[in-house]
Specification:
Layout: E1 2-5, E2 12-15, H1 20-29, H2 46-53, E3 60-64, H3 68-86, H4 88-97, H5 102-108, H6 121-130, H7 133-136, H8 139-153, E4 158-163, H9 169-189, E5 191-195, H10 198-201, H11 205-213, E6 219-227, H12 241-244
Antiparallel strand pairs: 1-2, 3-4, 4-6, 5-6
């Protein structure tokens, strides 16, 4: 493996010769995506969930639908979504990341598009061509967003709580790597994931989650999960590697 790091940023370009197993993982990257809708109500069997989590199961707490932990996640998520929608600064940050028009999407290659938010069909066309920043800052958009978050929070097979060994860059990166390995197995298992960490983003949210869920490790993310009929194709915007890394001369 060869690594070339930029001395100005903590970013490295890595290249490697991949074996058969690694090529499969690389190919899986192209299928990974966030799913916000379409979760089935039925449970994910314990054996299937264990295979999905694999060796990284120790980093994840499973909260099945109907458990006290899931109910707390639902209620705390809706409350946090409502609080964030009421704050102009938080709503403005969301507005900055929304890419409604195709021209914006091609220019930035990042952010959230209507398709990424699960807004498709006639509604997707309406939002794509008629919505703008003023709409996002308006009352109707905020109320619709909270209602949508509430419906999503109550759908699926339950919640997963991603934890870390320690709340440090090393611990957080390790947790992130573990989670990405789990996520790459999701399409084959027809299981969707939707990060909804609003509750731990609020002031005091981390402490409240630790107490409510009985966890003694730092919580990195809260995620809904559930079976889907068919794993849909990715729709996320992606930048080319050259747009992320500037190599030294």
């Amino acid at each position: 493996m060869v690594a070339r790091a930029n001395t100005d940023e903590t970013v490295a370009m890595l290249s490697a010769t991949a074996g058969h197993r690694e090529r499969g993982r690389v190919a899986a990257i192209g299928h990974r995506r966030t799913l916000r809708d379409g979760f089935l109500a039925r449970p994910v069997p314990a054996a299937a969930l264990a295979a999905l989590l694999g060796a990284e199961a120790g980093d994840v707490r499973v909260l099945p639908r109907g458990s006290p932990g899931t109910r707390w996640c639902e209620e705390a998520t809706v409350a946090a979504a409502r609080a964030q929608a009421a704050r102009d600064a938080a709503q403005a940050e969301l507005a900055d990341w929304l890419r409604f028009r195709p021209a914006e999407q091609r220019l930035h290659r990042d952010g959230l598009t209507p398709a990424m938010m699960g807004i498709t069909g006639v509604g997707g066309l309406w939002v794509t061509w008629l919505y703008g920043r003023d709409d996002v800052m308006g009352t109707r958009f905020r109320e619709t967003g909270v209602a949508r978050a509430a419906a999503q929070a109550r759908a699926g097979a339950g919640w997963l709580v991603l934890t870390a060994d320690e709340e440090s860059p090393r611990g957080l990166f390790a947790a992130g790597r573990a989670w990405q390995r789990i996520w790459l197995r999701a399409p084959e298992a027809a299981v969707g994931f939707h990060p909804m960490s609003y509750a731990i983003q609020e002031d005091g949210g981390q402490a409240a989650a630790l107490a409510a869920l009985g966890i003694d490790r730092p919580i990195v993310a809260l995620l809904r999960f559930g079976h889907v009929e068919a794993y849909p194709r990715p729709v996320s915007l992606r930048r080319a590697p050259a747009a992320w890394v500037r190599l030294p001369a």
